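Summary for the steering committee. One of the milestones for this cycle was to obtain a three-dimensional model of the protein with glutamic acid bound, which we needed before selecting residues for the alanine scan. The sequence and ligand used are listed below.
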Amino acid sequence: MKFFKFLFLFVFVQVTAQQGGMWIPSLLKGMNESEMKSLGMKITAEEIYSINKSSLKDAVPHFNGGCTSEVISPNGLILTNHHCGFDAIQNHSSVEHDYITDGFWAYKMEDELLNKGMVVSFVVRIEDVTSTILDGTTSLTEAEKQKKIQENIINLSKTSPKEAWQDNLIRAFYYGNQYLLFVMETYKDIRLVGAPPSSIGKFGDVTDNWVWPRHTGDFSLFRIYADKNNRPAEYSTENVPYKPKYFFPISIKGLKENDFTMVMGYPGTTQEYLPSYAVDQIVTLIDPTKIELRDVTLKVQDGFMRKDNSIKIQYAAKNATIANAWKKWMGEVKGLKRANAVAAKQKFEKEFQEKVTATGKQAEYGNLLSDFEKNYAEIKDYALAKAFWDETVIRNGEILSIGYKLYQLEQLYNSKGEQAFNDRRNVLVSGWGEFYQEFNPLVDQKVFEQLIGIYNKKYPKQFLPKSLENSNAEALANDVFTNSRLVSFEKVKELLSGDAKSVLEKLNNDKGFQIAKAMADAHFKNVAPKHDEINLKIAATQRTYMKAILELFPKSRIFPDANSTLRVTYGKIKGYKPSDAVIYEPFSYLDGVIEKYIPGDYEYDVSKKLIDLYNKKDYGPYGVNGRMPLDFIATNHTTGGNSGSPALDADGNLIGLNFDRVWEGTMSDIYYSPEICRNIMVDIRYVLFIIDKFAGAENLIKELKIIAPKNKK
Ligand code: ARG
Ligand code: GLU
């Protein structure tokens, strides 16, 4: 009896502890649904995804390709992050209307602002098409197989039934062990409805990015417009607000630690099933290299930005983008080390190998791990060289990136001739006006010098271009930035004028071009072909490894890596312990904004209006016991692309908006742990408080379906 009680308790604890994973909404019935219920969910899987009636998934459109949004009113009002709407907010801003600084609110629908090119896409239905896509691929070589799969995808996308205004999208899951078809509906008339000032929407900006405790009101509002039949249409004054199949009721009933939450959205990329060899390479080599190259870039930029306000304006956005992944990788390395991810993977691999033997699958799966070991050892130098290439030429070295585009222009001329050359040149020149406005050669020279310095020391010697051998970084930088014409828009335009032959002659005499060309030649001759060849082998091994895991561990929780398709993740509201002797609570409050307030600071300024509301404790129905809840964290497994995702309670009501993860847990892209991985959400009550009390946009509040506790109206 005692034993059974113990067993029951053990099983129960196991079940409630099951968190992590990004699951396919159409396949939640069974294991996920029972886990979700054991964590406290009161709705059913059918209410989340149904093909017969409206369901939660009908209110979660992919926002402009990179973020997530949710429908919150019967008139197509959608909510997403401030950082997801930022480009649009910026595009509408001018000196007279500085919506970035002051915020923007449409108090009537006529005031809503059109955003050219912006789209949101709904999932209409999901179908498994694995057998059709893998048809006729069994006996092919790896390269042929990939080609055939691509053909099958193109064919099925064309032929699979859909309405004229819909699209078929086919995506690989589990490294190509499963293929799903998504019928999508994309709306193209999306208007800006509201955005708080940056001092709310970006409060704490770069310093607080990836950090808990957090006090950011990272939200903005848009509206979907449709034609008279409620179908997608290009922008037109005839268009009307979209009537959604479903929109989220909003709960302001309040939250507490351990409450169930789930997040729906479009996570971009994870690598949860890498072997230990790969994780080890990331932790010890690839991440540190990328971090080091960004480290020097950021330091140089920051030094100039602090001294010179015009450079700060030029480099603020670039600097923030470079810092975003840089900071994430640092958290990732720290987290993977702290969680002993490599050792945990090795332990699993031992178990895996034993299972292979026990089930008599040696012939099929016996060599997978040794293949990984061999291939990761072989790819090491190539992967390192590629990280250098990506982080110097493609990303951080600006003149190098211009030089590389010109290198491609030369290649284009060699393969396609004068006309193609002219067309590309025109595209490049017309795009570079904006680039050079945000370019400062003094900054880039120092960045270049630093990058080349690391190149000389750490880039694999055997691939190093001749012109960089034994080079002096400072002298080289000096030479390039004194003599190259790539350093100013005027000079580049002059350099690129004339017929192709003469342009190419001028280019090849240009110091900046020469160095970019030497690096590109070295990369494309010495590194890329072999890198891609080994990578193809690794991809094939990974696919078989995934298949084996699915087959040999059928009772495990095995979710497909993120691939920008709609997923559901669930967990509990929970604090965590970031380091020894420190405990983080799961909720932050407006009090924290006032604590962080630095008058006039670009990250921590606070508007007078917000301070007044704080002093008066004028929180309307949104505050609790005289305090205004702001952000909160939970164990939901999210990643880039989940920005703007709805956070839902046990009843499926909207309680928040996902926008970030905690730094100590960014390793969740590779290794999720419920101990330390947390997603960060803005509390929906803070969003409503800002719309209602701060902006006075009652017109918007009236559209919403708000569920209040009984004692509040
Ligand atoms: N870390 C978040 C994400 O990965 C927010 C990035 C935008 N905010 C910023 N300060 N750069 O996208
Ligand atoms: N900020 C991320 C985004 O833009 C979400 C945070 C994460 O990576 O979890 O999608």
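Key point for the committee: The first strand starts at residue 62 and ends at 63.
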